[in-house]
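A reminder before we start the practical. When you read a complex entry, don't treat the lines as separate problems. The point of joint prediction is that each chain is placed relative to the others, so the output describes one connected object in space. Small molecules and nucleic acid strands, if listed, are placed in the same frame. In the example below there are two entries. Take a minute to note the order of the lines before looking further.
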Amino acid sequence: QVQLQESGPGLVKPSETLSLTCTVSGGSISSYYWSWIRQPPGKGLEWIGYIYYSGSTNYNPSLKSRVTISVDTSKNQFSLKLNSVTAADTAFYYCARGRTTVTTLDLWGRGTLVTVSS
Amino acid sequence: SSELTQDPAVSVALGQTVRITCQGDSLRSYYANWYQQKPGQAPGLVIYGKNNRPSGIPDRFSGSSSGNTASLTITGAQAEDEADYYCNSRDSSGNHVVFGGGTKLTVL
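Here is the predicted structure of the whole assembly.
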C-alpha cells in the first residue's frame, strides 16, 4: 500500500533553512495533492501548504514569505523548505496526501520532529 | 486564532453518544473533514465530505452539517475513541486549507 515517509535534519539553527523531504512509496506521486502540515508539541495542527503533482502550489498566507514546496516526480518525492526559522518553528512536521480534494488528507506520514535551537 | 472553532475538550461516558462540533463561516460553502489523533501518532482521517468513512473506520463515526457548523458524532463511544479530534476545510476565501484548534475527547 502507499506510504509516506518524512526525512531531514531534526535540528536546525535559528535563521537557517529547514529542509524536509517526503518520499512516496508503493504508488505514484503523479496525481493528487501533496501537503505539509505541522504541529508544535502539545498544540494543534497548522497547514503549511500543498503542491499538485503538476507543480502548482498554494501556501498558508502566514508562512508564504518563507515557504517553498517542490516536487520531483522522477524520485517520487516532494519537499519543504522553510527559511529564516525561529524557535516558533519547532514542531512535528507531517506530509500528507489529498486524494479526493485538497482538504481531504487521507494518507499521512508518521511525522518528524524538527527543533530550532542553537 | 483559527477560522474553524472547536471546543477544547469534551467527555462522554462509555457506550454513550457524543457530538464534536466545528464552527466557521466557510462551512456554509465547504464540507468539513475530521481527523483522529492518538498520543504519539499522526492524525488519521475518520470522516470526509458530506458523511463518508474511509475503509476501516467503524460505522459508529458519522458526520453532519448545518449552516456554519459541522459535527462529528460517535454513537456508542468506546475506550479506544479517546483521542484528539480535528476538523479541517477551506478558509473563508476558499483559497487555503485551515484546521480547527482540536477537541480532546475523554471517554469516562
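Discuss with your neighbour: Chain B has no helices and nine strands. What might explain this?
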